[in-house]
From TrEMBL:
Pfam families: HIG_1_N (PF04588). Residues 1-95 form the HIG1 domain. It comes from Burhinus bistriatus. This is HIG1A protein. The gene is Higd1a. One of its GO terms (biological process) is mitochondrial respirasome assembly.
Length: 95
């Protein structure tokens, strides 16, 4: 590459800190961090309830916890897809 030629990836080269990359990704896809946070909350609640499960078998408790966590993540992904479709097709930016 010649010294006078501008880099193709100049936007990514100047934006090198991890937090700025993370914030940029959160702005592009806001439902991914919501899904991750929901997954962590469901797992935390499931671990808390593990102490007070009573007669329930461990395997049944773990299956319920897994289904709840996966359901939250799938719901967040679905909301994210609907949100991006809404932004792209309904509220089109003027060109």
């Amino acid at each position: 590459m010649s010294s006078g030629q501008e880099s193709v990836f100049s936007e990514y080269e100047t934006d090198t800190s991890q937090t700025s990359k993370l914030l940029r990704k959160f702005k592009e896809t806001p439902f991914v961090p919501i899904g991750m946070a929901g997954f962590a909350m469901v797992v935390g609640y499931g671990l808390y309830r593990l102490k007070h499960r009573g007669d329930m078998k461990m395997s049944l408790h773990l299956i319920h916890m897994r289904v709840a966590a996966q359901g939250f993540v799938v719901g967040a992904i679905t909301c994210g897809v609907l949100y991006s479709m809404f932004r792209e097709y309904v509220v089109k930016p003027k060109e």
